[in-house]
Write a structure and sequence with these properties.
- The protein is mainly alpha-helical.
- Helices cover 79% and strands 0% of the residues.
- Helix 6 runs parallel beside helix 8 and helix 6 packs antiparallel against helix 11.
- The termini are far apart.
Length: 250
């Protein structure tokens, strides 16, 4: 245990990682998304991509335990199941790419994906109509690749739901359920590959504590009547994380 604590204390940027995951938990709690968009750009300053993906998924399991019970009854489980199944098939592609791309390249991909996602949300991009089953499979597949490559499990699905016409409560529940399922899928893939070091597990456990607490705080703040306030608060925090995580500052 002392050795594990020493390893944890030697983690680069530990205080900033704690602050980032705490802010991400509040946003995740009241919007249902935003953890990776906030945490991954900041974590990229201090940690290699493989560690970020593992930590992101392991801590995600903690927050999902707090959020899924309420979301389960409000979500469209059939639709989320199709998205998750498609992501299950493509996560290995993302993990394969992550192992072969330069860390700086992955950071630029993170910045581009997070920035474009935020831009689409802020400008109010919308579509009308129903998405077919092949369309859902495509959205889930893209989410799986991005999740395995960068830890950004949510952007494709977040854009799909927030750009649609569904009520905020339904959007929140579906997103929570999908992200929880994808966390399990990616963690299982990493364990099968033997890609999770003990030091990474310790770091994830340490970050899971503030994340779990702030997720509950965020959930307690959620009120569908204040949808606009929630979204703009989330957008502001995401923008700060994306800008601070750009490789140009080094």
């Amino acid at each position: 245990m002392p050795d594990a604590l020493l390893q944890l204390g030697a983690t680069p940027g530990l205080i900033w990682l704690m602050i980032a995951i705490g802010a991400a938990g509040i946003v995740r709690g009241f919007t249902g998304f935003g953890t990776a968009l906030i945490f991954v750009p900041v974590a990229g300053i201090f940690l290699p991509p493989a560690v970020i993906v593992a930590v992101m998924m392991l801590t995600g399991l903690a927050s999902s335990g707090a959020l899924i019970p309420r979301a389960w009854g409000q979500a469209d489980r059939r639709e989320v199941g199709l998205l998750a199944f498609a992501a299950l098939l493509t996560v290995p592609i993302g993990l394969w790419l992550m192992a072969r791309l330069d860390a700086q390249m992955v950071r630029w991909i993170v910045a581009a994906v997070a920035g474009l996602t935020l831009l689409a949300l802020v400008t109010g991009w919308r579509f009308s109509g129903q998405v077919s089953r092949p369309g859902l499979v495509g959205i889930g597949g893209v989410a799986g690749v991005l999740g395995g490559l960068t830890g950004l499990t949510g952007p494709a699905v977040i854009l799909f739901y927030l750009a649609g016409q569904a009520a905020v409560q339904s959007v929140r529940a579906n997103t929570i359920l999908f992200l929880g399922a994808l966390d399990v899928v990616i963690v299982a893939n990493l364990l099968l590959r033997g890609a999770v070091a003990w030091s990474t597990v310790i770091l994830a456990l340490a970050l899971a504590v503030p994340y779990f607490i702030t997720t509950l705080i965020g959930q307690s703040l959620f009120d569908p009547r204040h949808e606009r306030t929630y979204r703009w608060a989330a957008y502001s925090v995401i923008a700060l994380a994306v800008v601070s995580g750009l490789p140009i500052w080094e």
